[in-house]
Amino acid sequence: MVKKLKFYNSFRVLNKHKNSIILIGNFDGLHLGHKKLFDLAKKYKKKFKLKIGVITFEPMPKMYFNKSLKNFRISNLSQKIKNFGKLNIDFVIIKKFDKKFSKIKSQTFIEQILYNNLRAKYIFVSNNFRFGNKREGNVNQLKKNEKKYNYKTINPNPLVIKNKIISSTFIRKLISNGKIENANKLLNRNWQIQSKVEKGRQLGKKLGFPTCNMSIKDYVIAKKGVYAVKIYKKNKKPFLSGIANLGYRPTFRQKKLLLEVHIFNYSGNLYNKHLTIEFISFIRKEKKFRNINQLKKQINLDIKIAKKKLK
66, 113, 142, 259: least buried by Cβ within 10 Å? Predict the structure, then answer.
C-alpha cells in the first residue's frame, strides 16, 4: 500500500516532520538525475530512521524572475505532485515563490527555515544549488553553517551518462530538438502534456482527420512536427493511440502555435475535456505542402509510421 503523502504550503510542519532529511530543488521532470538524489536520501532514511521531505517552489523561480520565459516546464504542478507520490517520501512543501520570499537573505533561510522551522538533519541539494536574495547563497554557505545549526549538507555528484550531465536543462534541450525517445529514457517515463481541448477551425475534420486542438500552456516547446502519441482521457485507461502535429500549420498560414491530436478510430465529442498527451516518437518536422491532396497523402503516411511506433 502506498502511504499518503503530506503536502504543505508553508514551512510550519507537524512535529513528526521536523528533524528530517530535506531535499531542496525545482525537480522539474523528476528525471533519473533526481532519482539518484532520492535513492541516496532513502539510504540515509533507512540508516538513521528519519523521514524524507522535499522543498520545491511554485512558480519555478526562473519563470518568476523572467516573465518573458513562457515555455519552460517539463511537467506541470499536478504532474510533479503525482510523481512525488511514487517516490515513497513523507512530505512535500510547495512554497509559493513571490516577491516577499525572493527577498529572504540566504542566512535567514538557513536560520529561520531550515533550523527554526524544520530542524533539518540532512540537507540534500545539487552542486549548483543557489538560494536567498539575488541567489547569494550556495553549497559552501550551507556547509559553513552545519555545526552552528546541527545539520549535514549532502551534495552528491550529478548523474553522468555518455559524458552528459543529466539535468532538466539537458532534457528540455532534447525535447526541443525532437529527441523525444532519448528524453523519455532519462525521464524514466514518456513525456506528457496535459491540456484542455479547444474549439478550432475544424480544418482536420474537413481533411478527413478530425483533431483535438490544444494549447501547450507553459510547457517547453517540443520540435515542431509530427509525433506518434498515446492519449489518456481523465483518469481513464487504457490509452488511445494517435498522431499529433505541433506547429503553425504552414499550409493554412496559421499564426498560433497549436498541438493538434488525431485519435485513431475514435468518434466522440472531446471539446473542453482535459487530455494527457504522451509523446512516444518524433516522425517528421513540420513542412508546407503545395496543396491539400499532398497534405492528405502525407498524413496517411504519417499514420502508418505512427501505428508501427505505437505497436
Answer: 66
